[in-house]
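User: Assemble these into one structure.

Assistant: Restating your components, then the assembled model:
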Amino acid sequence: MNPILSFIVVLIGIYGLATSKNIIKSIVCLNITQTAVILVFLNFGAFHGSNIPILIDKVIDMTDPLPQALMITAIVIGAAITALALMLSIKIFHYYGTLDWKELIEREG
Amino acid sequence: MIYEEVITLKTSRILICISRLLYPFMLLFGFYIIINGHTSPGGGFQGGAILATAILITYFIDPDRITNLNLLIKIEKVLFILILVIGSISFFTKNVFFTNFISIESSTTYKKIFLIALNFFIGIKVALGLVTVFSTFIKEGRS
Amino acid sequence: MIKKIALVLMLIAILITFSLTIQESKEYLDCFSKDYFVSKTFRETGSKNIVTGIYLDYRLFDSIFEAGILLVVVSGIIFMSKKDEEVL
C-alpha cells in the first residue's frame, strides 16, 4: 500500500471535521482521521510481501517494528479521547437540548 | 419518554443462550493472548480489550450484573501503583528507572518473568478501565 | 460554497506537498533501527515478539504513563457522569 493513499483518507477526515454540522459527526470524523494517521505510519515501515516482526524461523524480510510499537500508544489514546468526547456530548445534550454546532454558538452568545 | 422504551427493550432468548455458551471461551482467549504476549502476536493492551468484551457480554445475560463501579476503579488504581512499583525495581538493581530488573547478561528464560508479569497486570488494568467506561455510559443512558 | 471550494483546494495543496516530501525522502531512508532490533531484541529482553520487546523494555516509560492516561480518563468520565448534587 502507498502512504499517499492513506494520506488521502486523512484529508477526507479533515474535510468532514471542517464541514460537519453535528457533534456526533465530528467525533466520527475525528476517529477516521486518527485511524488514517495510524495507517500512514504503518505504511512507512512495510513493503509488499514482508513478514510480521516475530522471530519464529525466518528473520529476513521483516517489517519495521518501531512504528507498530508506537502506534499501540496512539490506538489507546484514541479510544480514551473518543470516550471523553462522547461523555461531553451527552452532557451538552442534557444541558442545551441540542447537538447542532450553529445553535450552540447562537445560544452561547 | 424515549428512555423508558430503551429500558423495556428485551433481548431475544437465542442471543442470551449463545452469550452464555460463548462467555468462558472468550475469557480463555483473552487470557491466552495476554499470557503468550511475548512469543506470539498480542500483548497486554490487545488482550485487555478482548477481556473487556468478554466481560461486557454479561450485559446480554443479566443487565444488572455490574453495579459497583467504585470497586472497579479502586482495583484499577492499585494495579497502576503495582505497575509503577514493578517498573521501579530496576532502580535498586541497575540504577536506571523503567527497564528490566534482571541483569542483561542472565539467560532469556529469567528475563521472561518481567515481561509476563507486566503484560498480565497491564492487561487486567486495561480490561477494568474499558469495562468501567462502558458501564458508566449504560448507567448514564438509563438515568 | 466558496468556503468549501477553498477548503478542497487547500487539502489538495497539502496532498501535493506530502507526496513531494515522500518522493524526496526515499533517498534518505535507512534500516539502522530495524537491523538493531532484529538482531539484538531476543538477547537483550528475552521476547520473541519484537513489538512487545520494544514497548515493555526499551520504551517502558511510554507505556506505563499511557496506562496512567487511561486511568485519568476513566476517572474523568465517572466524575462527569455524576449529577451536581453528588459531587463533593
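Chain A has a mean pLDDT of 88.
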